[in-house]
Amino acid sequence: MAMAMASSLEPVAANQDGDALAALRKGLEDPDGNLKSWDPSLVNPCTWFYVRCDGDNRVTRLDLGNLNLSGTLAPELGQLEKLFSLDLSSNSISGAIPAALGNAKSLTFLHLDHNRLTGPIPRELAGLPNLGIADFSNNDLCGTIPTDGAFQKIPASSFANNPRLHQGGEYEPNC
């Protein structure tokens, strides 16, 4: 009985990942058609281009760098519990970094550099236990550079070329 329950949960998790990616896709403009394989009617997002999964069909990597994408990031990215690597660098993505991304506890590599992101760096990201490499450079982020938790390991160069971002001071949620 327990075995049947476990196997019935796997498609639900895969669907949750697919729903999160569908929400991301909905918020992005894709003028070159790079994400045309992202068909939300398919149960398994592991067949989509630029998506990598583990043996349980859980999304572990999103390699969306340099695809001429614009738009905003969906908070549903935080639902990707097994996401290890997120690369959205060298696009024209605008808006804020969703605080919910701090729920993606497996996240180890985060590349958001060379976009048009605004707002503060969410403090929720400091709670990512495995975050080892993060790059927020070349955006329009503002407020203070976080230095606690996961950010203790992130070099200052990862925050470069954000003219409204500075070291020290109180967190500014609405900078």
TrEMBL record:
Keyword Kinase: no
Recorded topology in the membrane: Single-pass membrane protein
Localization terms from the record: Membrane
Pfam families documented for this protein: LRR_8 (PF13855), LRRNT_2 (PF08263)
GO cellular component, one term: membrane
UniProt keyword terms in alphabetical order: Glycoprotein, Leucine-rich repeat, Membrane, Repeat, Signal, Transmembrane, Transmembrane helix
Residue ranges of domain Leucine-rich repeat-containing N-terminal plant-type in the record: 15-54
SUPFAM superfamilies: L domain-like
Keyword Kinase annotated: no
PANTHER family listed in its UniProt record: SOMATIC EMBRYOGENESIS RECEPTOR KINASE 1 (PTHR47988)
Protein name as it appears in the record: Leucine-rich repeat-containing N-terminal plant-type domain-containing protein
Organism of this sequence: Miscanthus lutarioriparius
